[in-house]
Amino acid sequence: MMFRIAAVTTFLVLAVVSTSSIVVEAKVDRSITCYDYSDVFNNFNLKGIECTGRKLLFRIKNHFRLQNKNPDTKVKCRGGLDRELMALTNTTKNSDAKRQLQFLCDDALLDASVEAAMSLKSTWGSLESEPHSINLEEFFEGKGYLNKETGNFQQDANDFLKRGGHERFNYIGDDPRENDHYSTSEASYHGGEAILQFYTNEARSAFLDAPTAGFQKGCNATNAAVCCWQRDRQYFDKNGNCARQDCAKSNPGDNTDVCWTEVVDDTDSPYPYPGGVTEQDLHCHGMAWSTLEDTSGDVNANARWNNLFFVSMYDHLYTRGYAESITDDPLIAGEQAMCGCVEDMSAVIARADCTEAVGRTNYTASLDDGKLVIEHVPGSFRMQFRACEGFNYDDTISPEQYDEDYDLSPDVRSDNDLSAFVFRQYLEGKIDKDHVSEYEKTIVGYRNTTVNDSDEERNKVCEEKFNSKFPNTEYKEKVIVVTTV
């Protein structure tokens, strides 16, 4: 009997017997790649961009296709791309391989985050020291020259050219101190420059401590903070309604409603604000973070005060010109800080926008015994601030269900909403029911996603919550008479 033997190296041999011959076939060893990927990854640096499993998959897939279609390639890959992915990630299922690509990125970022949390610390000192001398206590209250003055922190010559150029303006340039209308004071100009430098350097590279005594308490009742503004001091930035020749009493972009304010030891309290008669356009923006003790790799928790700086001083003051607390309006009763812990705010609001802090680092990729390795580049860690990614409130979902890989479909996602992010924090076990309960006392639209739709919907929720808390008080504005000297 004649034998026909298939060529084999390290493959497992299977024999199939027939009456005329024995055919020997090789079983694919999926732990070894068909092609060499060392050049692909040894020269592959992710610098300045996010590492994701999709990016890694694209690079692997592209190299595989080039090799598989190359007429000079002697080996045809039995098992295809799936085999390559499983071999590179040391997995046995294609679905696991794709998940492992993302895990490699996540683990490298986690290592960078832990390293940063242990070694990268900073203070607000450069803002407080000469020549800027920003009084942080005063600033977060909504006071001081940064809040009380009017004028731009930043602008571009094109802002003038697009609006008539030399026929309308004596000065055209990027120095707001030279503007024809609402020229910026030296103090505000240099304060703005200090904020820009602080954002470029400390705020994105090292974890900040709490800026004031109020924040040093930690906002423990809610693990959330919020800023609310009632004035826009800067024109040309496409935010708010401050205009070049009319900026004295201008409002920020509207994104919320004040439902009511409460004033301690005031027999007329509370003060409801239905509709938009007294309450003008207002803007609120906040942040929330985890209560878990181990936050070594939780950038959003460790960078909560960086986030506070970004929201209050850079993104809303320097970039948009938003200033002053909502209770600085003499027609709004009570007094609260411009920025503070949610539980400390006396004005009850419908909703707020939201920013979260995430980590970024540079990465290198390599192969170790044929397996893909992703590592962070030491010293390259930095923070990035983005709209929060949260979930709309749903009382049918519990933290226990979510922990069991509950399928939250895209239609329940709600980005840039503080309540949606707080709900996500709750589902993830980062805060508990007590935190949520305290949060809802101030931001009442937590369970009502309609507050994101319009002022009309926000007013409905405000009235409902007011009537529930004060059943014997009519939801009607109490007019405050302001006397001018």
Tell me what the structure shows.
Among the domains are: about 1-30, no CATH class; about 120-350 and about 435-470, no CATH class. Helix 2 packs across helix 3 (about 80-90) and helix 3 packs parallel to helix 4. With about 475 residues, it is of the alpha+beta class. About 35% of the residues lie in helices and about 15% in strands. The protein has helices at about 40, 55-70, 80-90, 95-120, 125-130, 135-140, 145-150, 155-160, 185-200, 200-205, 215, 300, 305-320, 400-405, 420-425, 435-440, 455-470, and strands at about 15, 20-25, 45, 120, 205-210, 225-230, 230, 260, 270, 285-290, 320-325, 340, 345-350, 355-360, 365-370, 370-375, 380-385, 390, 415. The protein has 17 helices and 19 strands.
Main attributes of the structure:
485 residues, alpha+beta, 3-stranded antiparallel sheet, 17 helices, signal
How widely separated are the two ends? 118 Å
Number of helices: 17
Q: Helix content range of the residues, please?
A: 25-40%
Find the structural class using helix and strand composition: alpha+beta
Radius of gyration: 29 Å
Q: Low-confidence stretches at least 5 residues in length (pLDDT < 50)?
A: 1-25
Average per-residue pLDDT, rounded, comes to: 89
SS strand fraction: 15-25%
The major beta sheet can be summarized as:
5 strands, mixed
Strand elements, count: 19
Strands in their spatial order, largest beta sheet: 12-6-10-14-17
| Global morphology | globular
Keywords: Signal
